[in-house]
Automatic annotation (TrEMBL):
Keywords: Cell inner membrane, Cell membrane, Manganese, Membrane, Metal-binding, Transmembrane, Transmembrane helix. The lineage of its organism: Archaea, Methanobacteriati, Methanobacteriota, Stenosarchaea group, Halobacteria. It comes from Natronorubrum sediminis. One of its GO terms (molecular function) is metal ion binding. The keyword Membrane applies. This is Putative phosphoesterase. The keyword Manganese applies. Residues 11-204 form the Calcineurin-like phosphoesterase domain. One of its GO terms (cellular component) is membrane.
């Protein structure tokens, strides 16, 4: 952490999602978070730590109500709250509510309880901070998401669709996770966007929960699925007398394999038969499933397609803030778990990502095997300060090994060998303070 004598230095993190029912209590990054807070405890900077929403998973508690959840958090994570107290004696700690801990905005008692640990809970949708001659805008971002928008902010009874998804799906996953062959179901909170949950569960069932004998028996057929589809079509054309040459070439080619040709031919013949049966059953089932998805989309119950540009509503929000408040140099948000630093109209839009595990979907090129969801950690924070060359955003990561060896089966690792997640974010971005700040638009005159 570099020294800076020109005004306050801001450290911004978000989306820790600490707490929840049963298996959701386990915080895989707790040691790293404590170390980060300990470093801030000893900094000689004039610094402020801004926790920009979803610090806690209050939606994921189903057996407790209101501030009882605070008592549970303190009981489960005493080291963390004592470290808050110690760090808060040296730097200001400001906490904003997100959607998963929206209750922080709805109960005044939370303000008093967090103050006991030197954490200033601000019950607002957004806040600003001066940085040099400009301004930093912070919001969690749930208000830009129709599934998690709080229409009546501060009303404890206002619960968007996302609340019910987390209460009945994520929390239930935390209660059941340790019943599996491997404790993986709790990672459902790391699946983003939530439209991927059905595919993720299919993948984990196949690679983790399916009886190993069934899985290893199915793998050859699934790997050869594409070849078998082609052979099934060619065999049909041959039987119909439409086009026999390809099958003739194929059968003559098997002769060069010698004794192994019988085994290969038998395997492919069985595989083609299975594929034919699957196609016979699968095509009508696919058409029905597709019609169901279209119907659910029409009613807005479940949108199965990820937006083409998931950053669009946040960039539009940033543009609106830049227009209304021209002095704003940086628009900072979280919520989507997608870390990013983007230049927009000579200003910066920053997403601080998440400290949860991230799951990268990796498609398996061959056959019809389910995709693999590769786990990775990107424990990130943004350091924002006014320096000699302008408003500087430094994107920093805290080192933590990826849990690939522990969490992926040999089959999953083999199918994704050589594929690593990439995070293409500049380490240092600058908004020049010399840039011309546009004049704010005059307020419209009231109508007569």
């Amino acid at each position: 952490m570099a020294d800076n004598a020109d005004g306050t230095v801001y450290y911004v993190i978000s989306d820790l999602h600490i707490g929840g029912d049963e298996q959701l209590e386990h915080v895989e990054f707790l040691d790293e978070l404590l170390a980060f807070l300990e470093e801030l405890e000893t900094t000689d900077e004039d610094a402020e730590l801004l926790i920009n929403g979803d610090a806690f998973g209050l939606w994921e508690f189903t057996q407790l109500d209101g501030v009882e959840k605070f008592d549970s958090l303190v009981s489960s994570y005493p080291q963390l709250f004592e470290q808050f107290r110690a760090t808060g004696e040296n730097v200001q700690i400001t906490l904003l509510p997100g959607n998963h801990d929206y209750e922080l905005a709805a109960y005044e008692e939370y303000v008093e309880r967090f103050a006991e640990y030197n954490v200033d809970l601000v019950q607002e949708e957004s806040i600003t901070r001066p940085v040099g001659e400009r301004e930093l805008w912070l919001e969690h971002g749930m208000q830009r998401d129709p599934n998690n928008r709080i229409e009546d902010f501060g009303n404890q009874h206002d619960k968007p669709l996302g609340y019910y998804v987390n209460r009945h799906v994520t929390s239930r996953a935390g209660q059941l996770s340790d019943r599996g062959r491997y404790n993986w179901l709790k990672d459902i909170q790391a699946v983003a966007p939530m439209q991927r949950i059905p595919t993720w569960m299919t993948s984990k069932y196949f690679y983790r929960e399916m009886n190993p004998l069934l899985r290893y028996a199915a793998v050859p057929f699934l790997l050869l699925f594409n070849i078998s589809v082609v052979l099934a079509v060619l065999a049909g054309l041959d039987l119909a007398g439409v086009w026999s040459a390809p099958m003739a070439y194929f059968e003559s080619g098997l002769v060069y394999l010698g004794p192994a040709s019988t085994l290969v031919y038998s395997l492919l013949a069985v595989n083609v038969s299975v594929v034919g049966l699957l196609l016979l059953i699968g095509v009508p089932l696919y058409l029905v499933a597709r019609d169901v998805r279209v119907t659910l989309n029409r009613f807005g119950i479940f949108e199965d397609d990820e937006p083409a540009d998931p950053t669009k509503p946040y960039h539009e929000a940033a543009r609106a803030v830049f227009e209304e408040r021209p002095q704003t140099a940086v628009f900072c948000y979280g919520h989507t778990h997608r870390p990013a630093v983007t230049e927009l109209e000579d200003r910066l839009v920053v997403n601080t990502g998440t400290w949860l595990k991230r799951l990268y979907r990796r498609e398996v090129v061959a056959g019809l095997l389910p995709p693999v969801f590769q786990p990775s950690f990107q424990l990130s924070y943004a350091r924002i300060a006014a320096e000699s060359d302008g408003i500087v955003v430094e994107y920093e990561t805290v080192e933590k090994p990826d849990p690939i060896a522990e969490e992926l089966t040999y089959t999953e690792r083999l199918l994704t060998v050589g594929i690593e997640p990439e995070l293409d974010i500049p380490n240092r971005s600058v908004v020049s303070e010399d840039a011309t700040v546009p004049e704010p638009k005059p307020e419209p005159e009231p109508a007569d």
